[in-house]
Amino acid sequence: MKNPSSLSVPRTIGYSLLLMTIMNWVDILVPPQFLNPIWELETVGSLVEGAPLLLFATFLIFYGEDAYRGVLEQRLVRLLSQACLLVAVCFFLLMPIGANSTIRINREIDQQAGDSFGLQMAQIDQLEEQVDEISTEEIAAILESQGIQAADSDPTVSSKDRLLEYLVETRQNVMQETSAVKRGRKRSTTKNAIKWGIGAIIVSFTLVYLWRLTQWARVPVIKKLR
Questions:
Q1: I want to staple 84 with a disulfide (CB 3.0 to 4.6 A). Which of 106, 128, 157, 211 is the partner?
Q2: ∠ CA(51), CA(55), CA(61), 5° rounding?
Q3: Which alpha helices (DSSP H) does 146-158 contain, by range?
């Protein structure tokens, strides 16, 4: 049979890790920003990624079942066993919260990309409309600022035509870059949301299983003493 010292060491470490987990939760959740989808998703990720510490702490605390536990510790372990079910429900709820935050973030990405794209297109359209009013020297300066020679071996192509060609290419590049950036940001957000959602489910079911395994801890102390 295990002696008190062999059980007190892991249990002490378990209580310490549990306190560290609670402090991490406070640091993550305070101050709350419930209307900010980015904060919500990052909070889900932080809680899920910090869950292994919680699970390990729970394992160490429950190690040895009720052997060599005083009355106060037995009551504390009973509360912790009940808390496993409550925390499991909380982690399960993180999945829909993360999914809803992801949808809102993706909408914001679309909105931001659309605003940026519209602004750049407006600038290009404005420059195209002003081409006829801009002097040859100004056109040459614009081209040279973009690393384009205003005149080359083909004298049939004017500086104005080169500027218009550049604006057409710029328009296409802006469209491609905007689309690529938007896809990349949405892919990264969705990937993290899926990863954290699956992690939340795993943690939730693990805590439920621990709650079932620790039924011995929920037996009233009076009954144990009889």
A1: 211
A2: 140
A3: none
